[in-house]
Amino acid sequence: MKPIKNFYLSFTLTARFYILMGVVVFLFILSFIFSSFSDLPYFAFGILISILLLDTFILFRKNNINAERILGPRLSNGDDNPVYIWVQNNYPFAVSVNVLDELPIQFQIRDFSYKLNLKPLEKQNLDYYIKPVKRGIYAFGDLRIFVSSAIKLVERRYSFNAEKEVAVYPSYLQMRRYELMAISNKLTEIGVKKIRKIGNSSEFEQIKNYVVGDDYRHINWKATARKGDLMLNNYIDEKSQHIYCIIDKSRNMQSPFEGLSLLDYAINATLALSNIALLKEDKAGIISMAEKEGALVLSDRKPAHITKILEVLYKEKTRYLELNSEQLYITIRKKIKQRSLLVFFTNFESLSAMRRQLPYLKKIARFHLLLVVFFENTEITNSLNLETKNTQDVYFKTIAEQFVNEKRQIVKELNQHGITSILTTPQNLTVNSINAYLRLKSSQKL
Fold first, then answer.
1. Weakly modelled stretches of the chain, pLDDT under 50
2. Which parts of the sequence belong to the DUF58 domain (predicted)?
C-alpha cells in the first residue's frame, strides 16, 4: 500500500494534459453531430492515454533526481544571507524542474520557486538571499522538486527532507565587515572618519605608509626621502580602556524602521562597536535595561569575549514598559567600578521624555564619560520636503517641524549639561557610533 500511496502523492497531471483532454472531449461532441467523426475521438483518446502512460513510465521508473539545500549554521539579522540549492538530473534525457523551497513562517512566503532546465546527467546550483528582520529560531521545511519530461503530460514530485532550524543572530556579517575594514585600515571607505589625535601623549609605535585620512603633521620626512613614498610616524592609542554599550530595551525601542526595530539596530551597532573596541585593545561590556535590570556582561578583552557578547545579545527582547532610569544608575554604580565610556542607545520621542531621565543621566556623567545615542524619525524628517497641497498638508508639515526641532533641542540641552549626544538615523547608527567612539578615544577624555 505504501508504494501506491507514494505514487499517488507524487503524481500530478499538467495543464497540457487537461488541454489535450479538452480537445478529445470536443471531438466526442462533434462525433454526435457528424457521423464522419465517430472513430476519430476514440483514436485520439487512445493516443493520449498511451503517451500519458509512456510519460509516467519514464518519470517514475527510478528515483533520478537528487537535491540538497546548503545553509549556514546561523543567519545574520538585517543582512542578506545566502542560501544555496543544488539539483542533479540522473535521467538519461533532459527534464524541466521546478524547485520549491519551504521558507520559515516569519517570511510569510508560500510560492517561492525556481524553474530550471537540466540536460541529461547535469547538475546545477542556484542561490538566493533571505533577509530576516527579527532574532530567533527560523524553521526551514522540506525541499520540493517537480520534474517533467519533454512530453509534459505528467509531473513527478520529489520531496527531500531538508527540515532545519537556524538561529538568527545579531548582525555578525556587519560586525565582520567593519572588522575587516579596521584590520586593513579602510574604515574610511564605509563612512568611519579618520580621527586626528590631540597632542602627542601617545607612545610611538612604528613608521608606516601614509594612507588617505592620516594626520599629515606626523609625516616622517627623513623616512619619506629614503623610501620615495610618504611615510608616517604611527602612535599607539591608550589601551585597556573600558567601553560599555547600554541598550534601552523598553517600549520606546520597539518602533520599526525598514523591518527592523530600533532595538535590533541598537543591538547590531553594539556588536560592531564592541568588536572594534576589542580590536583597539580596549575592554568591551554591555548592559541592557528596561523596567528592571537585564543582561550584564562585564568589560573584558579575552579572545572569546565577542562570542559571549553575541550570545547575550541574541537573547535580548523588547520589554513593553518604561525605562527605569533609577535602576540603571544603581546598576552602573554597583557593577562598573572603573571610569568608562558608556554608549547609551535609547530613543527620546519628546523633550519631556528626555527631561524625566536627565537627573539620572547627569549623575551617571559625574562618574563616567557618557555618550547618549538616540534616533531621528526619518519619516517625519522626509515629510518636511513634501509639497503642501491643502490645509491638512500644512497642518501635518507644521507638526513635523515641531517634532524635528524638539529632537534638535534635546541634543542642545544634553550638551548644556556636559553630556555628549548623537542624533542619528537608524541606518547610520553603527557608523556614527564608531566615529563617536574613535573621536572620544582620540580626545583622551576617558
1. 196-201
2. 207-348
CA angle centred on 419, ends 416 and 420, rounded to 5°: 110
CA atoms of 418 and 109, how far apart (whole Å): 50
Give the separation between CA 118 and CA 116, rounded to whole angstroms.
6
> Cβ contacts of residue 154 below 8 Å, gap of 6+?
11, 12, 13, 14, 17, 52, 55, 56, 59, 148
Does residue 198 belong to any structural domain of this protein? no
DSSP secondary structure of 358-385: HHHHHHHHHHSEEEEEEE--HHHHHHTT
pLDDT tens-digit readout, 324-378 = 999 999 999 999 989 999 999 999 988 998 999 999 999 999 999 999 999 988 7
Q: Tell me what pLDDT residue 1 has.
A: 56
Query: Three cell numbers at 158?
Result: 520529489
What is the helix, strand, coil percentage profile of the chain, to 5? 45, 30, 30
State how far the alpha carbon of 225 is from the alpha carbons of 112, 211, 212, 443, in Å. 62, 17, 19, 31
**87 and 107 housed in the same domain:** yes
pLDDT of the residue at 267: 94
Which grid cell is 432? 556614527
100 in the same domain as 46: no
In whole angstroms, what is the distance from residue 320 CA to residue 290 CA?
Answer: 8
Is the distance from CB of 432 to CB of 345 less than 8 angstroms?
no
Is residue 34 located within the same domain as residue 103? no
In a domain, residue 196? The reply is: no
Residue 197 lies in a domain: no
> 167 phi and psi, to 5 degrees?
-85, 135
Q: What is the pTM of this model?
A: 0.79
The total number of structural domains in the chain stands at: 4
| Domain of residue 291, residue span | 172-179+186-191+238-442
8 A C-beta contact, residue 349 and residue 252: yes
**How far, in Å, CA of 143 to CA of 158, rounded?**
8
**Cell (9 digits) for 237:** 592609542
Ranges assigned E (strand) in 217-282? 231-236, 242-248, 256-257, 260-261
The answer to whether 287 touches 321, Cβ cutoff 8 Å, is no
User: How is residue 440 written as a grid cell?
Assistant: 572620544
